[in-house]
User: Fold this.
Amino acid sequence: MDYLNRLARFLDRPLFPWKKLILGFSVGQFVFESLLSLRQYQVLRKTKAPKVLENEISQETFDKSQAYGRAKQKYELINGLWGQIQNIAFIQLDVLPKLWSWTGDLLLKFAPARFTGEISHSIVFVLTFVLVQQALSLPSSIYYNFVLEEKFGFNKQTPKLFVTDMLKSNMLTFILAPPILAGFLSIIKKTGNQFFFYLWAFAAGLQVFMITIYPIAILPLFNKLSPLDEGELKTNVEALAKKLNFPLHELYVIDGSKRSAHSNAYFFGLPWKKHIVIYDTLIEKSETQEVVAVLAHELGHWSLGHTTRLFGISQLLVQNLSTMDADWMYATYHFSHPHLSERLKALNWTSSEKVGTDEPEVAKATGRDEL
Assistant:
């Protein structure tokens, strides 16, 4: 660990230009990401679908997808600018050091002596900063849900549900964050330069704990999980799981439609006991084989040992008005998966019939079975 000591001595110089360094990185990242967004915005101005998609979607669907993409890019540019203004203000005005001093004064004035130590101070500081950040981001969150998503028919939240979700999230943060932060800080304080291993062990145990309590204590606060009814979909998903030796314990349907019209699916659980969750909107809008294809994609990641989050296959992407084409630099930086047209090219997808403007169904095509 000698290199850590040398690095600490180098960075701990009184005249080290911390502000300029951090500000430079922050502005540089913002400029780079903004340039990528502008490149993507130009792609979203196209009026003709990529060749591989010409027979797969109607012009109306493509136009709506492009309009949705442009609206999101504008939002992200403006929201990013607002975030960058905050970063510059926080750095230049020493907001975090002042917040640290202010929360310390609060503890000295109002808390018992045993709660005025470094760990208690850090917990109060972090929780206060969370509330500050939430207040600053609240206007953009309201706009995103109740203006942008509402305009394209995706938002299903009511103002009451929005506020209730926010209060529940804060409650969970104030319950879970203090012991977790106390654990991390205590380990660092007591183990010195050997803290890496101990933090890893603590984080691994914490992950198992959170996975265990998530479906029992956290998820029911926000959504309702119901066992998937017997039928063709359940039979096919169970057969897929058995084929891949996936340790499926239970199949659930989640009431995602109470907040959004977007479709999704995911799985969670311990390595030996997994649960698959399918949004009710995905079941409602998709054929059985399309839902199975979405899950096959995700279980394929699990089977190959990839880090897993769900990004749906073609039907899911179309329903969500996801990006159907993308600037290559933007996609390299932002996408963990190829966008829709690249996926179909990789499958040598060829359509057998043209989708008309009056028929929103996806055309049957050679290559569908391979999905």
Q: What stands out?
A: The longest strand covers residues 248-254. The radius of gyration is 24 Å. The longest helix spans residues 59-92. Confidence is low (pLDDT under 50) at residues 307-320, 357-371.
